[in-house]
Amino acid sequence: MQNKINYILATIALSLTFITPVVATSFIQTNLFLLGEGDVLNDDLWLSGNTIEIKGQAKNDLFLLAAGQSWNSQNEKDGSVLLSGQLENDVWAVGNTISLTGAIRDHARLLARIITVNGSVSNSSILAGNSIHLTQTARMERDVLIFGENVIMEGNIGGNLTIFCKSVTLAGKCAGNVRVTAGDIVVLPQTQITGDFIYSSPDELVLDKGVVLRGQLIRQAEEISKAERKSLISWPSLFLQSWLFIGALCVGALMLFLFPAFLNESAAQIQTSPWKCMAAGFVAICLVPMACFFLAISLVGLPLALLTALTFTVLSYLCKIIVALVIGALIVRNRHQGFKAFPAMGLGLVLLYAAAGAGLAGSIVSFLIVCLGLGGIILAAIARRTISAP
Prior knowledge:
- This protein is an alpha/beta fold.
- It has 2 domains: 25-223, no CATH class; 227-388, no CATH class.
- The protein has helices at 2-19, 226-232, 235-258, 260-272, 274-296, 302-332, 342-356, 359-388, and strands at residues 25-29, 32-35, 40-41, 44-49, 51-54, 57-58, 62-66, 80-83, 86-87, 91-100, 103-104, 108-117, 120-121, 125-134, 139-140, 144-153, 156-157, 161-164, 167-170, 173-174, 178-181, 184-187, 192-193, 197-200, 212-213, 217-219.
- The protein has a 16-stranded parallel sheet that branches. Strands 3-6-9-11-13-15-17-20-23-25 form a 10-stranded parallel sheet, with no helix packed on it.
């Protein structure tokens, strides 16, 4: 098993070697990273650190991971990302807190417990976190998609705005349509919406006279008709999911029989360091497709690109088995090893397949499962290499 793990890691490393001549890329892991005012970063940057501050100019893509000690840390510097410079290309950032006061000239993809936007984004944005605040100085020139618990939008949106959250307060301007799905919606008088306002909420929404709405106010019905209920039950889809579940059980049983130690080590990594696993898996999901793309456009790298893509696909499939082990062990409160863990794994797979079939929420759950499981595999492999190193 150790030789197989080393081979996989060598494959990924070789992929990065082929990428380097195509586009200059920097990989940095540090406690504190600071790009000062007046400094210029020309390369793509893949960065992992406790505190990240970008105050200068970055001319290429940024992939930032601020891995703090805890997701609920009260230390503002722990796992913080400060973006106050001029960022010319895409920015992918994960952290405990993210603050954007500068300008992103391309896409923004931000995931954090607290996200505060005071600056601007020239292209589309995706924001996900517990608390998200777009202040009055925020300028989002294209479409914005927000997933959060508490959202405050006071800025200026140049495209469409879509929000899924528990509670939202709108007080800004939107040049396109606004779609909101929330339990509590507050629209303040200074809000201006050029397009339609489409919302889904338990309560009927009555707009204040000071709200400027040039389109229509449309409430999406929460109740569905009997015909629609019947259409939700697709027997062919249910049959397919049943076969996929049986297949996952068979694969899981085979993995427990052949590689019980590594499965347990991966599950242990998820139990002890879930957020580190999530972050490591997210970085891998971003990195591997790029590696495959750049390898595929080079003649000598095409076979290696196919091998890397195949390896990544297999590992992504195994992620649900590892996460199912963790969930099952938490429920039964008994961590069996080897084939004795099969009942717990089966229980976990039932819950995962049920959650993965819940529409948009199911898609999000599936993505998080892959991130968590892939991160557990990576950290377990790194731990094995560290132990085996002389």
